[in-house]
Amino acid sequence: MAKKTLADKTPQNEDNVKNNDDIFNDDEEPNFSDPEGFIDDITDEELLGDILKQKPSETDGVESVIVVDGVPQVEPERLEKLQSVISKVLGKFGTIMNQYYPKNENGYTKGYIFLEYNNPLNALAAAQSVNNYKIDKQHTFKVNLFTDFKKFEEIADEWEPPKPQEFKAAADLHYYLLEPDAYDQFCVLCGNGASVTVQVWQNSAPEPTLLEERSRWTETYVKWSPLGTYLATFHKLGVALWGGPQFLQQARFSQKGVECIDFSPGERYLVTYTPRTDLGSDQKRLVIWDILTGQEKRAFFADGSSVWPIFRWSHDDKYLARMGEDVLSVYETPSFGLLDKKSIKIPGIRDFSWSPTDNVLAYWVPEDKDVPARVTLLEIPKEKQIPVDSVEIKEPIHAFAWEPVGSKFAIIHGEIPSVNVSFYEVRYGHQPALLRCHVHKHLFYSTEKLEKKACNHLFWSPSGQFIVLAGLTTMAGALEFIDTNDFTIMNSTDHYQTSDVEWDPTGRYVVTAVSSWKTSVDNGYWIWTFQGRILKRVNLNQFNQLLWRPRPPTLLTPEQIKEIKKNLKKYSAQFESKDRMRLTRASKELIEKRCAAMKAFEEYRSKRIQEWNNQKKRRLELRNAIDTDELDSDSKNVEEEVIEFFVKEETFIIDEK
Amino acid sequence: MKPLMLHGHERAITQIKYNREGDLLFSSSKDKKPNVWYSLNGERLGSFNGHNGSVWCIDVNWDTTRFLSGSGDNSLRVWDCQTGKEIGLLHTNSSVRTCSFSYSANLAVYSTDKALGHQCEMFIIDIKNVDAVLSQADAISRIAVNGPRISAILWGALDETIITGHEDGEITLWDVRTRKKMTSVKSHKSQINDMQFNKDGTMFVTASKDNTAKLFDSESLMLLKTYKTERPVNSATISPIFDHVVLGGGQDAMDVTTTSTRQGKFDSRFFHLVFEEEFARLKGHFGPINSLAFHPNGRSFSTGGEDGYVRINTFDQSYFDFHFEY
Questions:
Q1: How many other C-beta atoms are found inside a 10 Å radius of the C-beta of residue B274?
Q2: From CA A490, how far away is CA A508, in angstroms rounded?
């Protein structure tokens, strides 16, 4: 066919070419035209938007024109001089392409001129710089862009006041503190990637209540703010804060690839950080935000080596400090400028911490040759050296923890697995005194099972006195609940593979959790009382994280707390009766639920049993007329058989007497 | 009461079954010899010698005259219960995964695994008169199962239907006469490991790798109840006298080392049939439970474990005294 077409195209057959045109086209060239009835619903913008952007646009050059007013009015003889002055003043902003000096009937200039620059940017620069330029005593240049006139013309004659925006009352962000039974909340994160689910629970009695559950609320993990007001979620484009009874979005801070955040203790500022460096040169990696306004306060340079949190805040949000090599930089809020405009040089600084109550900063410099280790208290801005008390432990130390309220601390020391836990008390003007050495070698040999348990972590109750000793992950999840007033072991138990231990903010409950971030089996969390009594076991596939919602510090004075403690008996009686009532109500609900389930099931069963009874004839046919419906329904065919079993053999020696 | 420990197998137990009267307990294992025991004292009555591979499935007919076993040696064998002699042998193209007598025991069904070049197939055979012809005779029905293989099987009540549980969690009801699917449900997310009837056969309980056991109606395959755990469930059995279901299972053999036996992950777990609430656990095996069976009188139940033991557990009085409040 192709050959024939070629032959047709020879000049001799020119007449034929026309006739064969259609065949030719069909054969050799694809048809690019749209089929009939085709509707082109793709815009050029969509097809080649990127190319269209580069398309030069037409302009009449009007943006490059400026109007200069206040120019001296001169006769034709002096025009040349005027022009040279104008080009001296206005020529330095760019090449003047055109100039026009309007004249009246006498040939005098009118006092205003038009100049066209080679581009709009130069025109703008000239207008901004030369406006209000005094050329002499009587004349001041008024320069405007030609396009501005249009803008000014369109201003409405009458001023319209802007419409007031409707007042939106902010939700009560602290509603959860008004809960009459002082139930605490906690949030649970489970699932990974697309299946991430966040739940917020209220730890009500006798069963926790689910308050909120959202899938994909966050893309990685969640974090409560330090006073519990906000729940922070992480997204590809930034951080969002949620709060109020419905957990509505309260604020949003956009930073691509954000991975770490840190709230200031008073929840006024938020520090966000992304470790990513591939997001362009203008990407800010370490940013401090104002939470209420959502504004960026300052961005900092981030070096990769820092430990999170990079900034540590003073208790009142007034200062923040950052440690570098041999320097400590203290910044003040709200300006976020460096305090005294310079960093403090501290050779060998290893770590530092703010006082939880005052603007005092403690830093630590380790032993260096002959200079002993020292801790320095730095009162902003004064400085004071204080001596260090030291307790020498001649064994490896695995963990250390201060009692949050009180003056005790605990350490785990010794060679694994026979470790000991020791408790010390610090008294003013004295060496820390050993209170109790808890010898685990013996204690953890429970007489019943002879299973050896060991611990590697310490978890003090936030209200002090009680402590949980835990053997996390590698140590099988051994748990010991101890009252440090008299060092009784309230319970010694375990939660296999425990990876996290979380006290509730009041010190009433403890949660032990097995996170899927650490191990893939048995994920879930168990809720215990502070005495180590198990309340609830929750097994949750792909469980990741449980976080109690923090509470702000109590508003009660020490006297009031003392008073409450004194009258504890009275209160506990009230609470107990309340608990009993709740339990009765719950069990009543459960029984009602069971009753309903049983009734529905029996209804279904009676129908099926009826059908089954109707099939009895068929059944008998299939089994040679022997009734096998019940074990003993076929009494005719039963043969009694006696089987003797050998039970036991005993040998007695009969007394010879 | 102290359980009876039956130690007659050298490898993991694959299935255990009582006969109708409950005086005998049959067990199969990954070793090659199914055993039969007196359920009363745990004494071994005998073994069925002949297979050359793991025995995956067993069944005994209603009058305890015939015993069926299917094996990884690509054969299904029929045995005389009284003598322990092999009386029938059927060769297959791949492992026999499931087998079951019909209600009348005139028919039997077995299924084979999907294997190199062979798809999963279900065979219905006439087993009324077993003789040498059996191995040559054609099956009454030979149904090719496209898609996920059969992992559990039950005969419907009156020899008329067959219920198959599949690798992907699907359950299908077949009409024996037309060989067609009547209905099928996909309530489980993962493999059905076991299916067992209640006493009258109107309901059955499934055990699935998806960590649940479920109760279904045998005729409509309607889902009635769900029993949730946090472990793959290998087997589940319904009490003939109480509204109780017992579940057994555990991690796959390869994951077992990561689990502590103290955690009770290999316990038999008791659920209320209707309320779906767990109310008791019984410890025992040192590995996952692979098969569970209630004694027909409901006064004891047995478990067969990955550890190779069969345990016969007789209930104490406290079990009979316990009642749910409702």
A1: 22
A2: 14
Token pair listed for A7: 């032959």
Q: Best residue in A190, A473, A521 to probe B by mutation, most B CBs within 10 Å?
A: A521
Q: Is A148 on the interface with B (CB under 8 A)?
A: no
Contact criterion met (CB < 8 Å) for B251 and A604: no
Confidence of residue A29 (pLDDT cuts 50, 70, 90): low
What is the ipTM metric for this complex? 0.89
Do A554 and A569 lie in a common domain? Answer: no
Nearest to B1 by CA among B266, B248, B301: B301
Helix (H, G, I), strand (E, B) or coil at A350: coil
Token pair listed for B185:
């449900």
Q: How confident is the model at residue A14 (pLDDT cuts 50, 70, 90)?
A: very low
Q: Is A433 on the interface with B (CB under 8 A)?
A: no
Burial of B154 (0-12, 13-18, 19+ CB in 10 A): buried
- For residue A73, count CB atoms less than 10 angstroms from its CB and return exposed for 0-12, middle for 13-18, buried for 19 or more: middle
Q: What is the DSSP letter of B319?
A: H
Q: Give long-range contacts, CB 8 A cutoff, 24+ apart: A149-157.
A: A149/A67
Nearest to A100 by CA among A87, A116, A85: A116
Which parts of A182-312 fold into alpha helices (H)?
none
| CA nearest to A522, candidates A504, A501, A499, A493 | A499
Q: Which of A472-481, B181-190, B253-262 has the highest mean pLDDT?
A: B181-190
What is the identity of the amino acid at A73?
Q
Closest residue in chain B to residue A610, using alpha carbons only: B202
Question: A615, B158: Cβ pair inside 8 Å?
Answer: yes
Q: Are residues A226 and A123 part of one domain?
A: no
How many angstroms away from the CA of B230 is the closest CA of chain A?
Answer: 7
User: What residues in A contact B251, CB-CB < 8 Å?
Assistant: 521
Closest residue of chain A to B224, computed from CA coordinates: A601
A524 at B interface, C-beta within 8 A: yes
Q: What pTM did the predictor assign?
A: 0.64
d(CA B26, nearest CA chain A) in Å: 18
Does residue A26 carry a pLDDT above 70? no
Helix-then-strand count for chain A, H and E: 10, 38
Tokens of B273: 């049939």
pLDDT in tens, B20-75: 999 999 999 999 999 999 998 899 999 999 999 999 999 999 989 999 999 999 99
Kindly give the pairing relationship between strand B233-238 and strand B223-228: unpaired
Interface residue A611 vs chain B (CB under 8 A):
yes
- Tally C-beta pairs within 8 A across A and B: 72
Determine, for residues A601 and B274 on separate chains, whether the beta-carbon distance falls below 8 Å: yes
Q: Do A598 and B326 touch (CB under 8 A)?
A: yes
Q: What's the one-letter identity of residue A142?
A: K
Domain count, chain A: 5
Domain region containing A124:
62-153
**CATH number of the domain that A501 lies in?**
2.130.10.10
Asked if A645's CB is within 8 angstroms of B41's CB, the reply is yes
Among B202, B230, B324, the residue with its CB nearest the CB of A539 is: B230
Domains and CATH numbers, chain B: 13-238 (2.130.10.10)
